[in-house]
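Input:
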Amino acid sequence: MGFPIKLIINGVARSVELDDPRVTLLDLLRERLHLTGTKKGCDRGQCGACTVIVDGRRINSCLALAISHDGADVLTIEGVARGGRLHPVQEAFIAHDGLQCGFCTPGQIMSAIGLIQEGQAGDDPERVREAMSGNLCRCGAYRGITEAVLDAQKMLDAASRKEVA
Amino acid sequence: MSEIALSQTPIHLRHGSNIGQPLTRRDGVLKVTGAAPYAADQHPSGMLYAVLAVSSISRGRVAHLDVASAKAHPGVVEVITPANRPALAQDPDEKSHPFMFRLDLLQNDRVRYAGQPIAIVVAETLEAATEGAALLEPRYEIEPARVGLDVGESFAPQAVGPGFPPAAHRGDVDAELVAAKKTITQTYETAAQYHNPMEPHAIVAAWDGDTLSIDTPSQGMAMAQGRLAGIFGISPDKIHIRSPFLGGGFGCKGLIAGPQVLGVIAARAVGRPVKLVLRRDQMFGPVGHRGPTQQTLRLGTDSEGALLALDHHTKTMSSTYDDFFEPASTVSQTLYASSAVATSHEGVRADIGTPIFMRAPGEAPGSIALESAIDEMAEACGMDPLTFRLKNYAEVEPISGKPFSSKALRECYRQGAERFGWERRPLAPRQMRDRDGFLVGWGMGTATFPAHMFAAQAKAILRRDGSGIMEIGAHDMGQGAWTALAQIAADGLGLDLDQLEFRSGTSDLPDAGIAGGSAHTATAGVAIHNAGADAIARLADLATNDERSPLFGAGNAGVIAREGRLFRRDDPSRGESYADILGRAGLAQIEGHGAGGDPNMHAESDYAKHAHGAVFVEVKVDPDLGQMRATRVVGAFAAGRIINPRLALSQLYGGMIWGVSFALHEQAVVDPRSGRTMNANFAEYHVPVNADVPSVDAILVEESDAHVNVLGIKGVGEIGITGTAGAVANAVWHATGIRVRKFPIALDRLLAQ
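Output:
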């Protein structure tokens, strides 16, 4: 008994034979596809550690059933760095020490990338803090996280201006 | 070794070549790409999934489990209950030393707290194991829950915290209170709290005959090895633990917890590798917590505001079956000068899982009560809170009369106050509003945490190619051991960091001790430093005894090691590289060994050793709705030598956020009827989110300490909570004129007054 679905994961088309309709997108990624960068902190949509980008939107993958995402385009932390180069958000997290234990970090970075893509980050720290508040960090690395998002936004703005020019 | 007198600690350390540099995390790339391997990321071939069933009652016995239904569910391989749990070599209720806590390993059908594991379901998939556990539908014989600090008879515990004396005094507080011109007596309550690292406890366990291989987060691999060896009746060297990354620990991963052992039991029962990961709600019970407290402080001053008496009494709670009493009064022994000081504790027992050390155990709840009381005393004396604290500055440790090994607290007060702008603070409360009409208040607190040292070992290797290796089974919970310890190692070996391979995070390396008590950098760092010094001394011995070396005969003058070279101290132009020395001697490598920890750690020290700090907080309070936010937090801390300022600041920011959390957010709410924690999830157990802590700032105040250890390190992991929590509470009072003495200061508690 299987449930075939098709997904694009980090740009690669994959056919997945789901063994069980109860499998969440998070458990599919972690336990079946061994993409373990995405973390499970609560399994209830309360901590944001499992944040991935599906069809351009940030979601908690623990609250998504894999079977209901047939055809979806999924970006996980493993797909963020391209061609051996870190994404500006990843660089900024290291530079601003926006992490300690690192467990919430993949989710924080996916949220940051999502909100920058959505044009929500801007240069207002208060807006960034509000928009990043779905991702808990028990170590309390929030200052570095906020600085990293603002800094990455600046870098990406500068890069896109260059592209337009 | 030659007869030439070579110091065992050659003066080759130029602190600053690596130590003291604000390097970014060496494991940063692994962590931002999702490649850092945490325990639950492991997936050995043939692995099964284990899910725990836990009790929904807090006292009684499990009368029935529907094992047949669970086993009948497709994919379920085994259901383990007390009826079929494999025999263990040791009774889980045995306790032979204070660091050995009784565990719930399915030894019988008794339930002694809500959330206690009562069965394990093992299945081919996580989904099948989860469903299997739900199908067990336990029936209980329920006995009434006994919870809350007023649960019953209290008693004087034999020890508090990990083996501290429960009471101490100097002078006669009762007599001084009678003589005092002004006195206050107030009671403060703090809530039960749960560590809740983002990474729940997880284990992947695999048996091969009597060899056990496990991936699990641990703040103390050697102690975990010892505990597992006892439980399973095997030698510790048959147990291999990998714990390169912890997704946070905060104390609850210091000792191996019952659920981790249950993962090992499950793997043994089914003869295949097993992964067991706790659900978030299962983190509220079997892995420890911070016990609630009720603290009564009595203070008295003379007419000038000098403290004559400081009496701190704590009532707290342990489980019915084991001992851990939050040592909250202890902080009052060391912080403020007073003619008389007394601290004491009483305990009660309730139907809860056993508490355990949680970030700043004792100091965190003790500090919020003490700093609140000091503020109230200052108010009673009509004095500015900072002036009052300076008036009662302890020049020697109050309880012992010993001098401090170092204490730059005055400088912390000065720098912190200046950056915060404290001098503009009006003395009376409820004087400031912001543009939106919110009440604004400024409060402060003194931070303090003892500088501990435990025991550790390290091994250093210098190789013929000029590179070095440092080996130590240290633990990185996020504090940055991979980086800071490598910096110490590079300096210890006189190498650039890129010439050093730093091996850590597994139990087959030398024992680094426990990563707790803010002592890991100091303890492991000293072991590393000594191992490096030993290797360098052996290398110098080779060179100074070899006629062909430019260092021949330099033993009396001494040699210095730097950037992969040894050279004469009196003539830096005469020297040679490590590679040349080893090459000529025909050696592939040379080894050094070192121990950390104070060799006299059990002897009475001549000095009182503590880190200190001063924290200043602004809060804004909605005058109508009572909503509160800590809008500005500034801390200045003196904690001896700082190995990596970037990482130390992150530790302090995190600690201060825990302080804000302590004062405003965190509490486990227990239903008195069932004994269950009603908010065992991240939606209702509040910890600060990004928007809750808009501005956190810390200053590293320079402090040099010749007594704590050879490196002068005190530790920064826990001190940030202390001082901060009280400063928030004092700021709420200053904003509103309302003194809330029950923490966290939830808005209903503020509005009720």
